[in-house]
Every structure is written in structure tokens, then in C-alpha cells.
Amino acid sequence: MSQSANNLRHFIDLRDFTLAEIEDILRLATEFKANPWQNHLKRKHVALIFEKDSTRTRMSFEVGVNQLGGDSLVIDGSTSHIGGKENLYDSAKVMSRFIDMIMIRANSHDSVVGLAQHSEVPVLNGLTDYNHPCQVLTDIFTYIEHRGPIQGKKIAWIGDANNMANTFVHAAFLFGFHLAIATPLEYQLVGTVQRWAAKQKEAGKPGSIVQYLDPESGLAEAVRDADLVLTDTWISMGDTDYELRKAVFSPYYTVDAALMKQAKPDALFMHCLPASRGQEVTDEVMDGPQSVIFDEAENRLHVQKAIMTWLLQFGLAARNTDNGG
Ligand code: CP
Ligand code: NVA
């Protein structure tokens, strides 16, 4: 659970939030999209730490912090001591003396959790090997913006059951939508995520997930009557089994126009990007009328500004409590 004893809140996993809290963040994102210039981060510094490459996350956070009146420091993980020769406890304590908020894109999810455990300022997860909550919340914001409430809708995930797919499983039980995943046996959801989903079902939470593991029939089953179709790269950052992945995914796991036709006529297409056009998705779908990929990319800015602003109220309260104020 990413909440410290002093009420500090972090943004590491969608499972740490109630639906009401997430809806507050989405409302704020709508406000910021209409009125981008705000003062919520005035005289505040946000560290943006990258252990992996990024285009969208880096730009949207840098611009977002600036539009909120704050300053950002982009830190290349490979040229700092964080997660290297300095332990996470020392790094977290030191950063808390300079910085008001930390965004980190990390190789290992444990690094983000460890950093948050010791940090005295809010920590945001900008992608790990396990999840990508900023992106998935943005995808949901984008869906709602185009089509209205996502509760009860059918979402199809095609391809690797990766960090994005894990986060969609978490989101399915938070928002109450139905997630159909077409994925090969070799790259299906990890056991911990499958077991967590089974527990939500047993507890009677709204929402559901189903995996279709047959590559011949699974894609059509997943997209049938879907309201939203998503895919992602076959090879995520940090994956090393490149040849095997290509062999398993390339004969079947491409979202093309014929597959999109099997979804609802008004179904949307999303991809978190970067895409390998011609592999997991065709140009025709990427550039077609159902695609909202560039709205999706833009919305990272508005949603993350809302997350930072929402977290700041807890960050400030924690600091005031520490100071006896
Ligand atoms: N979607 C996303 O997180 O993109 P970047 O890797 O470019 O940040
Ligand atoms: N699954 C991809 C997402 C990139 C934004 C990766 O982890 O590389």
C-alpha cells in the first residue's frame, strides 16, 4: 500500500485508490485541459528520474510541471546514484530534502515501492516492469472524453500481457468494466495478477477479466462487440527474448482493419505508444477513424497534472505535520 504513516500518498498502483479518489483526479484533469495554466506547483521542484527511455512521459511531466508553475529536474538513472551504489533509503531521504515530488520510471517495480517507503514527499510511478498507472488512467480519461462512462463496457487487449495489461486488470475492478485479453500462452498474465483478479471476482467486485489463449480464435473472441481495442508492442523495454517473442506474436497478434470490424462499429482504438507500426498494429488502424492515439498521448499531460495536484495536498499536510504545523 503506497501510503505512509503521516498520510503522505503516492501514485504507484491504481489498486491503492478508491473510485471516488480517481474520479476526483479525472475531474481535475478535465479542468486542467480547459485551463492549462495553474499555480499548484508554484515554488515546488519535481524530480523526474528515468532508468528507461521515454518520449511522452518525460515531455508531459516536464511541460505539466511548468504549466503548474513549478520546476522539474530530469535525472538520467544511469548517471545518478539512485538505484545504483546508494541504497534507496539514503537516496529517498536526501531527495526529500531538496524536492517536493518524485516521478520515477524504473526497471524494477520494487525500486519504486522502496523509494516511496522512505520518501517524505509523494512518489509517482512513470512505468515499471510491472505496471503503468499514469498511462492506463489516461486511457480511461480518453475513453470517457470520447464515449462517456466506461463502467460495464467491454475492453479488448490484444498481444503481450505486459505492464499495461496488468494495469488494465487493476482498472477493470476499479471502474467495473469487462477486460478480454487475447494473448499467447507463453506471454499470458503473470500468476499474481491472475490470482488477484480471481479474488476480486470472489469478493463480488464489479468488472471481470477473461484470457483467450488460442491464437487462432482468441483475437476475434476478445474484440467481438468490444467498445475499445488496445494493443502494445510485442517487446517491452527490458525484454531480452526478442526472437522468441517475434516468432510467437508475428503470425497472429496484429490489430488490423479486419479485426477492428469485429468490434462494435463505434469502438475506439488506443495504443500507449511508441508503436512498431506493421507489427502489433497496421498503419490503417493507427491512422484510421477509430484511432484516438494522439488524443491519448496529449491527455498524459492533463491527467498527470491532476495526479500531481491531488498528491500535493497530502504532501503538504505531511510536511506541516512533521513541522508541528
Ligand atoms: N506511453 C509512454 O509511456 O511513452 P514513453 O515511453 O515515450 O514515455
Ligand atoms: N509495454 C511498454 C510500454 C511503453 C510505454 C514497455 O514497457 O516498454
From TrEMBL:
Gene3D superfamilies from the xrefs? Aspartate/ornithine carbamoyltransferase
Per the record, the major location class is cytoplasm
Pathway entry: Amino-acid biosynthesis; L-arginine biosynthesis; L-arginine from L-ornithine and carbamoyl phosphate: step 1/3
Its localization reads: Cytoplasm
Per the database record, which ranges form the Aspartate/ornithine carbamoyltransferase Asp/Orn-binding domain? 151-311
- What positions does the entry give for L-ornithine binding? 163, 232, 236-237
What are the record keywords, sorted?
Arginine metabolism, Cytoplasm, Transferase
Sequence ranges assigned to domain Aspartate/ornithine carbamoyltransferase carbamoyl-P binding in this UniProt record = 9-145
Key word Transferase present: yes
Coiled-coil parts of chain:
none
What SUPFAM superfamilies does UniProt report for this protein, alphabetically?
Aspartate/ornithine carbamoyltransferase (SSF53671)
Under the heading InterPro entries, the entry gives: Asp/Orn_carbamoyltranf_P-bd (IPR006132), Asp/Orn_carbamoylTrfase (IPR006130), Asp/Orn_carbamoylTrfase_sf (IPR036901), Asp_carbamoyltransf_Asp/Orn-bd (IPR006131), Orn/put_carbamltrans (IPR002292), OTCase_ArgI (IPR024904)
Q: Name one GO molecular function term.
A: ornithine carbamoyltransferase activity
The name this protein goes by in its record: Ornithine carbamoyltransferase
Which organism is the protein's source?
Candidatus Haliotispira prima
